[in-house]
Amino acid sequence: MTTTRDVLEQLGAALAAALDFDAASAWSDDELLLAAGALEAVGRLVDADRAAVAGEVAERSRLELGEQRLATRRGCRSAAELLERVTQVSGAEARRRIALGVATRAQTGLSGEPFEARYPVIADALGQGRLGADAAGTIIRELERARPVADPAALRVAEQALVAEATGDGDGAPVRCTADELRVQAQAWSVFLDPDGCEPDDERAMRRRGVRLGRARDGLVAITGELMPEVAAKLNRLFDAHLSPRSGTGFMTDEQAAHFSASGEQRSADQQRHDVLAAVVDTAARSGEHPTIGGAAPTVLVSVRASDLAADRGVAHADGSGLPIALRAAKHMICTGGTQTVVFDDAGRIMRLGSPERCFTAHQRRAITLRDGGCIIPGCSIPAAWVEIHHVIPDVDGGPTHPDNGVLLCWFHHRTIDTSGWGIRMIRGVPHVRPPAWLDPGGGWRASTVSPTRLADRREEREAHPAA
Questions:
Q1: Phi, psi of 221 (to 5 degrees)
Q2: Which family does the record claim for this protein (predicted)?
Q3: pLDDT of 314 above 90
Q4: How far apart are CA 24 and CA 27, in angstroms?
C-alpha cells in the first residue's frame, strides 16, 4: 500500500530531477517571473499541508492530554519544539505554522460532533492553493485582535473580503494583494470590527489590577489577572532580557548541529515566560531580602513516604498546593533541593530527624557553572542562572554529591530526563550527552558545554590541530 510519505518522497524525487538549481541564470525575464509564480503555486499547496500537519501535531500535544501529549512522549516541551526537532525550522516558523494550522483546522466537539474551522474561508482558500501562508497568517493575526468583541457575521464578511483581495477576486481584481498590502487592509477591518479599541483609563485600570491563582486542576494551577501598563512594560523588559535566543553551536560540527537542531530557544513563548517567573520566584526566595517563614527563606516542603519512593508508586504532597505531586516530580525536587529523613513510629511519633543531605554547595555550583555554562542539552539556551544541578548517578545508586557527578539542566530537561530519551554520562568529570533515538538514530555520545571559556579552548585546539 502506498503511503502519504511514499507519495511525498516520489514527488520530491520528481521535482529534484525536473528542476535545475542553477538553471534560473539562463532564463529570460519572462521565463524567470513565470517560474517564480509557478513555484509559488506549488509552494502554497505545500505550505497548506505543512500548516495542517502542524495543527494536528498541536492537537495531539494539547495540555488536556497530560503525559499522553505527543510532544511530551517525544521528550519535547511543546508542539513547536517537536516540529523544530523534526523539521529543523526555526522556533518562530514552527509557531507560525501551528497558529495557522489551529485556526484553519476543523474542530471536533466533546461528543464527537464536527465543527467548522475558526476561519473556514481562509481554510478553503489555503487548501486549494489560492492563498499563501503569509497572507493567511496576516489575515488571522489582525482579525484575532478584534475577534473577542466582533459581531460573528461582520467578522465573516471581513474574512471573505480579505481572502478575495489576497486571491485576486476583490476590488482590485485580477491583481492580488501582497502580504504587506493585505496587512494594512486587515488592520483597517480590525479597527472597524472593534472601534473602541483600548482606550486608556487609569482609574478604571487601578481598580481592576490584580493577580489571581486559580484552583488546581489537571496537574496545573491557573494564574490570571491584569497588570498596570507600566508594570507590564517592566515585566516585558525582564522577559526580553532573559529570553533573547542564543545561536551557534560552538564546539559542534555542522553535521552534529543539524542532528541536534541547536539553533536557539526550543520552548514556546508562553513556556519561556512561565520559566522566567519561576526563576524570579526562586531567586527572590533565596535573596534574603524578603520576609522569612520561621526564620528561614520561603521553602516548599514536599513530603513522600520512603516506601513509596523506593517502590516508585504513590504520590508526594507539597504544602501550599491542593494537588498531589507525581513521584517523578518529587524525585526531581529531591535531586535539586536535597532530602531530610524523618522517621515516625507506628503511632506517628517522630523517632529520628536526619540532617539535610544531597545539596550541592555554593562553591560546587560555581565550579559546575564554569564547566557547563548552562543547560547541557544541545539546542537548549537556558543560561546557568536559571538551571538546576542534576545528580547523573542518583544518590540511591551510590552517586556522590560532587562536581564529577553533577550537571546543569533546565527545569524541563531535568523534569523529563528519565522519559525524554536524552542520555547523560560523565567521562573523567566531563558531561557527555546522547540524543534520543528518534532524533539521532546513531546515538553517539558527545561532550556538551556552553561555557564560553571552554568553547574558546576548543576553538584554539581546532586551530592548532586542524582535521586532516
A1: -115, 120
A2: Belongs to the Rv1128c/1148c/1588c/1702c/1945/3466 family.
A3: no
A4: 5
